[in-house]
Amino acid sequence: MNKYNIMLSAVVISTMLISATLIAAPPLSLSSIKLPQIFNSAYADSVTFNFVTETLPNGQPAYRLDDSSVSTIPGPTLIVEQDDIVTINGVDTDFSVMDHPDEDGIVDSSYKFTASTPGTYVYEDESSALIGLFGAVIVNAADGSAGSYVDSDSGTVEEVDVSELDGEFVMFMVGSTFWVSELDSGSETPLWTNPMISAVEGDLVRFHILSVGPGHTFHLHAHRWVDPGTTNIIDTKLMEADEDSHFFIVKAGDAVGPGHWQYHCHVFAHMEAGMHGIFNVVETGPAISEAGASPYAAAVTGTGSGPGLVTFEITDEPGRWFRSPRGSVLEGITATQSLELAKPGDSVNFIMSETNTVHTITSLVWPTGAEHMPMDEVQSYKGGGIVQLNDPGLYVFTCKIHPYMFGAVVVDDASTDGLDLGETVDVAIPGNTIPTYSDLAARLLRTFWIATNPASWQDYDTATNPTLTWHINYPIDAVEVRLTGGIVAPLGPTLSAVYGNDITLETPYSPITDGVGEVWVDTQFEEVDGKTKPGTATAVNVADWTVSKKVALPSSNMNNPHNMWTDDTQSVIYQTEWFDNKLSTFDRSTLGEISRIVVGEAPSHVMTRTDTGDIHVALNGEEGVVEIDATQSPSQSDINRIIAMQGYGQNPTHPHAHWMGFDGKTMVTPNSFTHDSTLYGFTADAIINKQATGGLLPIATGAMPDSSKYYVANLLTSNISVMDMTTGALIKTINLLEDYNPVAAPGSGISPDSNGHLVVGALPIQTPVSPNGIYMVTANTLSGTVTLVDVRNDTAVTTLFSSGGVSCDPGCHGVQFGAKQGGGYYAYVSSKFSNAMVVVDADPNNDGDLSDAAIVGRIVLTEGLGTAKDYSSVTANAGTGGQGVLAIPNVYNGWIQNTVNSYGALSSEVQDWVCDLQPEQRDPNDTTAPNVTDPTCT
Prior knowledge:
9 helices, disordered N terminus, globular, Immunoglobulin-like, Methylamine Dehydrogenase, Chain H, mainly beta
């Protein structure tokens, strides 16, 4: 069976059963929607519009008038006269009209207002505006005037009436896309996304520019116009965020003649993301506009002709960060809401509709040589993107800030069997063109289906998974894919056969030797009642290895908590909210919220300075690190500054996991967007060096106890840069893929070399150095492994396993060190796509011999009977999303001495933990560190 193979039939049948509205719409090209007569001077004093909300074939919602057969984006343009009383029926309580509050005060399926002021206004359903429920109200002046235009022939500004207009365009700027319709002679034609709009030279054309969501700047090439209400002649207009509108009239081709004149957003990042189109001025008529990609022509469920449009909503929802609006329809077949199907020439539109922070749309995988690829954005923003996919094959997109967010599109060649993944694909690593039938390609596919479906995450809790069976949900068996060499195979069974499925997980167990204190893990995907955003912080008592505390901060709706740090007394937790712009603080003992302040977009990691106690938060969505005055309860007024991590005029760095020097004099950042690292000196308050790391997407750092060297994990190139922390110079690069062949056949890429050690660490993330300066533990998210580096010679030693032969879990992510009873340290390792924490003992005898390094514990992070918490119940993803890790007491050099020297100010609990530390743990083995006063321990 050709085209989408058996899948097409299954999807269409599923669609018919689930949502009849998706296939009920008639074919659509440039169908017209009839409107009230635009130029009728005998308007009644009141006019009523009856709305219907429907779902388009690509899953987006849209409005139509009840006497129209077509739902459109933007919705039908409502054209009324000044002082008309307007009633809109068929709306809900989130509906509003810009600058026109409902006159009855309560919106309940009907909205009423008086059109008192001429102009163009946005109407929208506020909860679904970005995804499609928006449109325009045009209020024409009672005297018939339409505005004025610039006439270059006469050198004058001329007034014009509505009756003299030759055409009108309604253009919405939404995300990174123009949604356009054309008005002509009392009817409206949908032109969909980024169309070519047309007029005859000399036509008087009125443009209605409106924005929904983030702000934009509209620009039209070669034409100038009068800014309404002023005498200013402009060619660019700033459109403010949320809702804004602007209208103007041009004489088409005035002073420039016929041609293709671009319209676009003047913000470079938005234009780069696809926010542009063509104003086509022809010498003689007819002037025919060409529609852009349409939701009606979407593959599988579409019924229209021409280029189709598939859409992803960018959300804060675990697993479904790229969510197709029709994902619930396709999920029964594709096993994910983050995979879309398209045909050559279709476009994919990304809308940041349900997220509280900024992102990028960045290509991770694409067909070799594909047009318009790779897609990337040099700066993040709350927008999105749109791109046309002309070549068959697999396209995977991610966010450079949150690089486990995945959305994929398969563009299928109808003339071949199976869904085409392409002979080869390019991945976001220089020179990395790989066969689709290869181990790396297969592992990326497997990871995609794990990451984008919470039902495929590992559950180590025997209360909910008694048999400890891990089942990965793949597309149904009938879904076949076309790979390298024309191989056609069912995707799910093939991946299951190579990498296993229905796997028995390792039974959780505790280390034989206890730790000291407690360890906190950001279980970022756990959802609880009383919140609309995910995330908890989980504490494990390492004296008995039980989950002792859970913090969700429901009163603040804490959003995706990512990384933590603490103060010198170990009493306050500083908590970043990565999918937001907040830093929260809470009391470690009582779990009570202390403060929540706006620091900047996508705050990722937080640390304090050892000399001042000041708090430093990396703004992963911006260009620097925010500095906050030392206090246990910081407020907005305590923000000192944002310290830039790049020089003036340089591209924004978007730093992620920074590290502070042991003496508070330096700070280093991994700069995710510029592929380098900044060394900052506080004494000079200046950048000492900004050095390329030799790898792509630097994401995390760790430093030697004496701040002599630091290390940068480069996510996409799977290597670690060794940097001089005095000069910032690159010393060496450590390859974490020594024993991996990415182009080997699936399942055969990993093999140890002649030295007998297996070093496989694909996509490394957190990589701290042990407080005694002997070794470094790295969490590798793609391979699900923990690797060990001896920092005495900066050599990768081995990949760590438990006695049962198991390493880390899928999405292995966070690592931090805590003290071990009797001396030495444990490394605590979290994983995004499981609910367990791994405990690593790299130096069991505390003698510097790493030959016995191993994983010695696996602790479940779900709540127990004795867990203290600030919510009632878990609603989804219990204990999952392990990312930032923080051990209490904080045993790193410089910080632990401050805590020990504050002994009298510590709680009795923390005093006991400090007394459990060995002398070398209270003052790590570093001759440059300040001496500490031994506490009075009993």
